[in-house]
Amino acid sequence: MESITTPAGITVAFDRYVGGDAGTVILVGGAFSYRTFPKMVELAQKLADEYRLTVINYDRRGRGDSSDSPGVYDVENEIDDIAALVEATGGSAALFGWSSGAGLALLAAASGRVPGITKVIAFEPPFVVNNEDFVPAANLDVTLHKLIAEDRRAEVVKFYMTHAMGMPRPFVAVMRFTPFWKSLKATAPATAHDWAVMGDYMRGEPLRAADWSDITVPTLVISGGKSGDLLRTAARAITAVLPNAQHVELAKLSHNPNIALLTPPAGEFLTGTANYAV
């Protein structure tokens, strides 16, 4: 593990996988994710080993070995964390974001405050762009922040999964008896950061091209054919409003991805060896 301290005093912990001279990519995890999550580790290793990339796999604030800003949840702060990480790890990097991490990666690229971003991969950002599927309540953060402040972690997990992610209550109830429940509770307070990233874009409204027009770097949006309609619709919607983007849907992929299927399009895009133009 390595770490940096950002100008705001946040400790950002990360692992560095050095595969070769093909460039650097920073992995940006989603809700309940952390850098030692097995699929994040597998993705980092495969991108390094198979595509000669240097991969930075980090804990977003409030997760794993990174510090937090309790009660302060603002996407601009997480963009600052990414800017500090890019600067500390070489000054230029692509971003690979997963779920809400994809939303964060796109917002970082749109902000103009991370000049070292070279490319973006957005894997299934959970935008909610119509009223045909699940739409979270706009004031969801009121209850979420209260539960977090009271350190009711099990309730935070259940609330965020059902009210922000739209997962069926019986499915969430069963998860309490799985080995993953402990990890879910450990990262539960960080869901307030995920909502700060995604909340404005989960209101059942079309994405506005003006919000994303400053993302001029090549962007690849990936979705899975086995994912739900909401995520697949979101992938098409964000691709349509990005100035320089390509959408790839992989038939056998889901939001809980087979990393062996996810790695090739990502690695080929990042190294410029893809057979599609972006």
TrEMBL record:
Positions of the AB hydrolase-1 domain: 26-258
Domain of life, per lineage: Bacteria
Gene3D superfamilies, A to Z: alpha/beta hydrolase
One Pfam family named in its UniProt record: Abhydrolase_6
Protein's name according to its UniProt entry: Alpha/beta hydrolase
Keywords: Hydrolase
GO molecular function: hydrolase activity
InterPro entries per the UniProt record, alphabetical: AB_hydrolase, AB_hydrolase_1, AB_hydrolase_fold
SUPFAM superfamilies: alpha/beta-Hydrolases (SSF53474)
